[in-house]
Write a structure and sequence with these properties.
Layout (H helix, E strand, L loop, with lengths): L13 H33 L4 E5 L2 E5 L3 H16 L6 H7 L3 H5 L3
Antiparallel strand pairs: 1-2
Helix pairs in contact: 1-2
């Protein structure tokens, strides 16, 4: 089913998902993935050999990943395509995810 997904029943409402979705977005995506992806983007832009970021109170470093920079650009493009983000963006902002989707300052 994951290779060829299709809707076979009604989707859960956003309100019913938020109690478990928001903590995941905040703890895993907003607190870990977003700071890492922004550090990766900055390191690539600067031509740095290594990126460094603090994740969960620990210093983390690695070589920047060019492939992931393309993935971040694709996420930003998809976010920009959403015509009405009035329900989505407040959730993304509360969980620390929106900053990565807005692009470099």
């Amino acid at each position: 089913r994951m290779l060829w997904p299709r809707a076979e029943a009604a989707f859960e409402s956003l309100e019913s998902l938020l109690p478990t979705l928001e903590p995941f977005l905040a703890e895993q995506v907003g607190a870990l993935f977003c700071p890492w992806t922004l550090a990766n983007e900055a390191a690539l832009a600067a031509g740095a050999e290594e990126l460094e970021v603090v994740l969960a109170g620990q210093r983390f470093h690695q070589k920047p990943q060019k492939y992931h920079a393309r993935s971040l650009a694709a996420l930003r493009a998809r976010h920009a395509e959403i015509a009405d983000r009035s329900a989505l963006d407040p959730i993304l902002a509360r969980t620390g995810c929106l900053v990565a989707l807005r692009g470099p300052a």
